[in-house]
Automatic annotation (TrEMBL):
The keyword Transferase applies. Belongs to the class-IV pyridoxal-phosphate-dependent aminotransferase family. GO terms for molecular function: branched-chain-amino-acid transaminase activity. It comes from the Eukaryota. This is Branched-chain-amino-acid aminotransferase. GO terms for biological process: L-leucine biosynthetic process; L-valine biosynthetic process. InterPro entries: Aminotrans_IV, Aminotrans_IV_CS, Aminotransferase-like, B_amino_transII, BCAT-like_C, BCAT-like_N, BCAT_family. It comes from Lentinula aciculospora. It holds the Pfam family Aminotran_4. PANTHER family: BRANCHED-CHAIN-AMINO-ACID AMINOTRANSFERASE (PTHR11825:SF44), SUBGROUP IIII AMINOTRANSFERASE (PTHR11825). The modification N6-(pyridoxal phosphate)lysine is found at residue 217. It catalyses: L-leucine + 2-oxoglutarate = 4-methyl-2-oxopentanoate + L-glutamate; L-valine + 2-oxoglutarate = 3-methyl-2-oxobutanoate + L-glutamate; L-isoleucine + 2-oxoglutarate = (S)-3-methyl-2-oxopentanoate + L-glutamate. Its EC number is 2.6.1.42.
Length: 399
């Protein structure tokens, strides 16, 4: 990790020093005409972009170029670029919020930057200084601050993207790269708002596999899921529940980490999520749910809507589709929900698989089960600066 954060970049042989990414050399060219902000009822996730973007390029001979903020527009890429031909693209998803004090803030951005670095390393892309990327994100947010919504549940989505831009068709790592950071105002991820979604369990197509890239946020993890999702939607389901192996281990729900709530024999509850075995993305929201559940169990906080005496046993452990059927038949499967930056928390109300009868979970008036609602409310309050917890909320002007 030290290489990516503190050591100046070098050529790939590790000897010759080249320029590191340096936010102090940032140049800013503002758009002459700012776009009008569309009405919020027209917003779909990722369909509206702000006025500006950050761009910096890496060359193996000279290192990172001086970064620039400029009007948002197309990038120039050779059709033989590595990112086009071999999918050498990694990215992050994070959000900026306006707090009650009127100041923009980020949610646990250090975790996003660390994951971006790991993803880039996994794809053999040139290294960069993650602290400098955060400074550039702050500068871009400051320039396009007018786009940050003030309504609860709304935010400014941030997409730092690193693309391999080596020109050539040889199958090799890209020693050229382009870093692009852009912003998109975001409302609720699902157009229907906060409600329970349905998921079709899929075993014949996998999202990730042992030794692959499932534990990293790389572009090629997402597109293979588009066709299975289309098939599921034609059958009336909204998302995919990804299974893996002959024993049908549950891995993720769509592009979200998955949690399930199971009643124990002693009346307490287990909160289960698959372990980080290389096939599971180490989500920031996932980590936050686990931390909050353990804090509630330790008496450090009381999650809203839950009794202080409710004992939550948060566990990272493998469970299978057969486990879900058994727990459901026994009346012990209380909740299932997905967790991710875009959606925060989404309850799963129905799970289908082939010709077997659907698993139906209890309906809740607000669309979220008690634990799902408790986690969503708490995380959103921290994100929006209504509640302080550890160092999770970071003011942009403190970066």
């Amino acid at each position: 990790m030290a290489l990516w954060k503190t050591v100046g970049n070098s050529t790939l042989d590790g000897v010759s020093r080249v320029a590191d990414l340096d936010a102090s050399k940032l140049t800013i060219t503002l758009s002459e005409t700012l776009k009008p902000i569309p009405p919020r009822d027209t917003w779909l996730f990722g369909n509206i972009m702000t006025d500006h973007m950050v761009v910096a390029e890496f060359d193996p001979e000279t290192g990172w170029s001086n970064p620039e903020i400029k009007p948002r527009g197309p990038l120039s890429l050779d059709p033989a670029s590595s990112c086009v031909q071999y999918g050498t693209t990694v990215f992050e998803g994070m959000k900026a919020y306006i707090g009650p004090d009127g100041k923009p803030r980020l949610f646990r951005p250090d975790m996003n930057m660390a994951r971006l670095a790991r993803s880039a390393e996994r794809m053999a892309l040139p290294p960069f200084n993650i602290d400098q990327v955060l400074v550039l994100i702050k500068q871009l947010i400051t320039v396009d601050r007018r786009w940050i919504p003030s309504s609860s549940g709304y935010s400014l989505y941030i997409r730092p993207t690193l693309m391999g831009t080596r020109m050539g068709l040889s199958v090799a790592a890209s020693d050229h790269a382009t870093l692009c950071i852009f912003l998109s105002p975001a409302g609720p991820y699902f157009r229907s708002g906060v409600k329970a979604i349905s998921a079709l369990a899929v075993a014949d197509t996998v999202r990730a596999w042992p030794g692959g890239t499932g534990g990293h946020k790389v572009a090629l993890n997402y597109s293979p899921g588009f066709l299975p999702l289309r098939v599921a939607q034609k059958q009336g389901y909204e998302q995919i529940l990804w299974l893996l192996g002959d024993d049908m281990k549950v891995t993720e729900a769509g592009a979200m980490n998955i949690f399930i709530v199971v009643k124990r024999d002693d009346g307490e509850i287990n909160l289960l999520t698959p372990p980080l075995d290389g096939t599971i993305l180490p989500g920031v929201t996932r980590d936050s749910v686990l931390a909050l559940a353990k804090a509630h169990a330790a008496g450090e906080i009381i999650l809203p809507g839950l009794q202080q005496t409710l004992r939550i046993h948060a566990q990272e452990r493998t469970f299978t589709m057969d486990d879900l059927w058994r727990w459901s038949a026994d009346g012990r499967l209380l909740e299932a929900f997905g967790a991710g930056t875009a959606v925060i928390i989404a309850s799963i109300g129905k799970i289908g698989f082939k010709s077997r009868e659907d698993i139906i979970l209890a309906e809740h008036e607000d669309g979220l089960g008690p634990l799902a609602n408790a986690f969503r409310t708490t995380i959103l309050d921290i994100q929006e600066g209504k509640e302080a917890w550890k160092d999770w909320g970071v003011l942009v002007d403190e970066l």
